[in-house]
TrEMBL record:
Top-rank taxon, per record: Bacteria
Pfam short name (any one): Polyketide_cyc2
PANTHER family, alphabetized: CHROMOSOME 9, WHOLE GENOME SHOTGUN SEQUENCE, SRPBCC DOMAIN-CONTAINING PROTEIN
Protein name stated in the entry: SRPBCC domain-containing protein
Gene3D superfamilies membership: 3.30.530.20
InterPro entries linked: Polyketide_cyclase/dehydratase, START-like_dom_sf
Length: 151
């Protein structure tokens, strides 16, 4: 199997605008994010950026994904590759969906494809998936903490 998809969702007790305000403040990730440690620049659609990631097992990696989609208060999507196309490609996405009760469904996922996917299956379904959960939980805490402080 050369393809694996993972996705994690979390309900955040805040509006999409409040979630986007924290999510899109990429320079502040160093203060709260356990997995996305650093972006060299705010993502711009069609451009590449540099991202420093840390898995829950402690492994760090630097990626240079190309931003495929950036729609304010809705979605950020990028594609990263290991060396050559078709070897190990990942299309990572973050989606914000407003819910009728004024809260936000935050979705983070990735479509993995390539020759190395079967060899990296354990990492994808283990530390990578746990990293998505950790980021989502940390974002929820940060946003809800800011909402509470502004009341």
């Amino acid at each position: 199997m050369r393809k694996i998809d993972i996705e994690k969702q979390i309900n955040i007790n805040a509006t999409v605008e409040q979630v986007w305000q924290v999510f899109s403040d990429f320079k502040a990730y160093t203060e709260w994010s356990p997995t996305i440690l650093f972006l060299t620049a705010a993502p711009q659609q069609g451009e590449s950026t540099t991202v420093l990631l840390q898995q829950p097992d402690g492994k760090k990696m630097t990626m240079h994904p190309k931003v495929l989609q950036l729609v304010e208060m809705k979605e950020l999507r990028w594609r990263g590759r290991l060396l050559l196309p078709g070897l190990f490609d990942g299309e990572h996405y973050f989606i914000l969906k407003p819910l009728p009760n004024g809260t936000t469904l935050f979705i983070q996922g990735e479509h993995f494809d390539g020759l190395l996917v079967p060899l990296l299956r354990k990492m994808i379904l283990g530390p990578t998936q746990r990293g998505f959960e950790a980021f989502n939980q940390a974002l929820k805490r940060k946003v809800e903490e800011q909402v509470t402080m502004s009341l």
